[in-house]
Amino acid sequence: MSKRIEVRDLNVYYSKFLAVEGVSLEIEPRSVTAFIGPSGCGKSTFLRTLNRMHEVIPGARVEGEVLIDGNNLYDPDVDPVLVRRQVGMVFQRPNPFPTMSIKENVLAGVKLNNAKISRSDADALVEQSLRGANLWNEVKDRLDRPGSGLSGGQQQRLCIARAIAVSPEVILMDEPCSALDPISTLAIEDLIEELKQQYTIVIVTHNMQQASRVSDKTAFFNIAGTGKPGKLIEYDATTTMFSNPSVKATEDYVSGRFG
Amino acid sequence: MSSAATTIKAKQRPGDRVFSGSAVFAGSMILVTLAAVAIFLIVQSIPALFATSDEASILTTNFWDYVLPLLFGTIWAAALALLMALPVSIGIALFISHYAPRRLASVLGYIVDLLAAVPSVVFGLWGIGVLAPAIQPVYSWLVTNLGWFPLFAGPVSGTGRTILTAAVVLAVMVLPIMTAICREVFLQTPVLHEEAALALGATRWEMIRMSVLPFGRSGIISASVLGLGRALGETMAVAMVLSASGVISFQLLTSVNPSTIAANIALSFPEAYGLNVNVLIATGLILFVVTFAVNAFARWIVSRRKEFSGAN
To answer: CA B219, CA B178: separation in Å to the nearest integer?
Structure first.
C-alpha cells in the first residue's frame, strides 16, 4: 500500500521565478513526515510537486526527480492523472463537492476514468472509507444528504475518506487543520496516527505542536528573504528536530524565536 | 447589548438618504413599468378575447383558434433554437474558460460579445440572403433520404425559408448572451473544487464534469432562460426569414410553417384596424404570459436543489 518517496535536487519554478531550490530528501513508507517553516517558504509548493498538483498553476514547472518506489513522477511518459491516483491529497480548506451527497463524495474518485462499481461494492467501500476517516458513526444515517451540510471538521474527514477511497499509496495533507477548531483538529490528528499504519503521509503544518505530536520526521524549510527561493534547511527525526537541531535557524524557529 | 442598541440611534446623513432614496426609486420603477405594461396588455386584450370573426376580420373562428398555432410556432421555434444553441454555447464557454490559452480566450470572448451587438435585422438579412439558399440542398437531401422520420417529412421547401432555418438564425442570435453567462459562471468555479477533482486523479474533462458543470448548473439554466426569452420574443429575424402560414406542424423542412407571435404582430400590425388591433395585442399578452411562465419555471428548477448548490 505505501511507498517510499525519494526527491533529488528538486527546483520548482513559477514561470521564471524560482520558488523552491535544491530539495533532496527521502521519506520512508508508513511514516508521517511534517513540513514546517514560515509562510512563503515553499513547503506547500514542494508538497504539491509530490503529486504534480502544482502543474495546475499555469507556468509552474520543476527540475529534478521525484521517485516513488524508484519510478520518476516526472518521466515524460508519466501521466499526471495516474500520479494523482497514487498520491492523494487533502487541502487546507475542506472541499467536498457541494452538489454531491456524502456518499457520492466518497465515491467521486472511484467512479473516475469510467470505472464501474457494483452497488454492494460501492456501499461497502463507502462504509470502509468513512470508518477509515472516523466519520462513519456521525454520518451513517444521512449518507444521501449534501456533504456541505457537515461541520468543518466533518467535511475535512469526508475529504480524507474521499482520498483514501481510491486506495492511494501516499496521502499529502496541506495544512489540513488550519481551518478547524481544536476538537476537530484532535480528531484529524488521531486519524493521521491510524492512517500511518497503511499509508505514507506527508503533512504541511504551521502548528509546531502538531508537527511534534503527529510526525516521525520533520523537515524545516526557510527563505532568506522575500523573492528568494525556499530551501530545505534541516530534515531529521522529529524528536531530534525539536530537542537538539543541528542548524541554528531550526532551533530559532522551533523555539518560537521567529516565524 | 440590546438595551444599548435601543438607545443608540444612527445619525441621519444626507448622503445615506439620497442613496437609499434613489435606490428605492430605481427598484420601484421596475414594478411600475411591469405593471404599466401588464395593465395595458390586459385592458386592450379583453375585447379581443371574446371577439368573433364577424367583429374582427383577422379571425376565422375565434381568438383562441387564432392564437394557438402562433403560440405553438413561437415555442417550437424557440425550443429548436435553444436545443441547438445550448450545447454550442456551453462548449464555447468551456473552451474559453478552461481550454484555450489565455490570450486566445480573451480574443474569443470579445468576438462572442461582438456577435451580441449585431442587430437582428442583419441576422434576418443573412438568414434570407445566405443561410436559406445555402441550406436548401441539405433540406432536399434530408427529405429524400430521411423523409420517413416525421420531422423531416416532405415536400421540401423550395426556398429554404422554413421553421428550421428560422430556428438556426435564432440560435445564432441567442448564442452570444448564453455563452457570455456560461463563461462568467464557469470562470467563477472555486479553484478549491477544481483541485479537489484533479487531486483525485480526474482528467480535465472529468474535472469539468465534477466541479465546473455542477457549480455552473444554475448559471446554465439562467443562460437558457435568457436565451429562450430572447428567442421567444425575437421579431425581425423570424418575420424576415420564415415563410409562414397559420398551421400547427412539427415538420421542419416544408414550406408550410407555423408563424410566431412576435413575427405575426410585426407583419400584421401595419394593416390592422379596429378590433384586429386588440386581437394582435391579445396575442402579445399571451407571449408575455408564456415568457413569464418560462422564467418562473426556471427559477423553480434552480431552487429545487438549493441545498446541493455551491451556495452553502
So the answer is: 9
